[in-house]
Amino acid sequence: MYAVILALVNLASAQGEAVEVTVPHEPGLQAVHAEWGERRVPFVRDGDRWLTVIGVDLDAEPGAHALVIEQDLGAAGTQRDTGQVIVAAKQFPTTELTVEPGYVELSPENQERAAREAREIDAIYANLTPERYWSEPFEVPVPGTTGGRNFGHRRVFNGQPRNPHSGADLNAGTGTPIQAANRGRVVLAKDLFFSGNAVFLDHGLGVYSVYLHLSEILAEPGQMLEKGEVLGLAGATGRVTGPHLHWGVRVLDARVDPFSLLDLGAD
Prior knowledge:
Layout: E1 7-9, E2 17-24, E3 31-36, E4 39-42, E5 44-46, E6 49-56, E7 63-72, E8 78-87, E9 94-97, H1 108-126, E10 154-157, E11 160-164, E12 167-170, E13 177-179, E14 184-192, E15 196-204, E16 207-217, E17 224-225, E18 230-234, E19 245-251, E20 254-256
Parallel strand pairs: 9-10
Antiparallel strand pairs: 1-2, 2-6, 3-4, 3-7, 5-6, 7-8, 10-11, 12-19, 13-18, 14-15, 14-17, 15-16, 16-18, 16-19, 19-20
């Protein structure tokens, strides 16, 4: 066996980041997997290296987290190496919002609907497509936008605390075309109680992007979208205070700042 150098590119320096992990290709190396938390994710061959992406959840405990790399060397056997990802704490502010009472004090019918939709979404995130659909860098779904707001903010709706905001809010007036951040397959395109008109894309390797509160959906489940393809129009559907785009990303079910995807592959 040979010693493999584990290269952590764009190592997460804070909670809520996507991290690209690479291993150099060597003769005889047939497959690579990572064990991160309770998830096992494959690497894909990319020229003279193997790569995958892991996510550091916005609520991950600060400190060192083990990352196991397993390499299939064929006849030479299997090699396992354990490294560490050092997670630094990040301070997220609290946002207080006033919305329609029906989105806070739910009727039994709406409670059942919200729970049913949550189960549907959890099932999507639990699925890990072993291939990578993208080959180019990710881009912001609203062209010309250089930043978002509210990622990780603790939400208080009508005085009642809720889970932290798991996406970035982008300025977008009603009817603004919303583009796919990268190549991916549509795994959900429907109206959701809290999220309004929503589109979910599976980019492979456990990477999902979501586009919420759309005024109109222009994509269908099963459709493969190319980067930059319009998937809907911005709006103010669901639990919102005004028109905008909620752009969210999950990596191995970890809630990460979608803007951290823009750095994947950077030197």
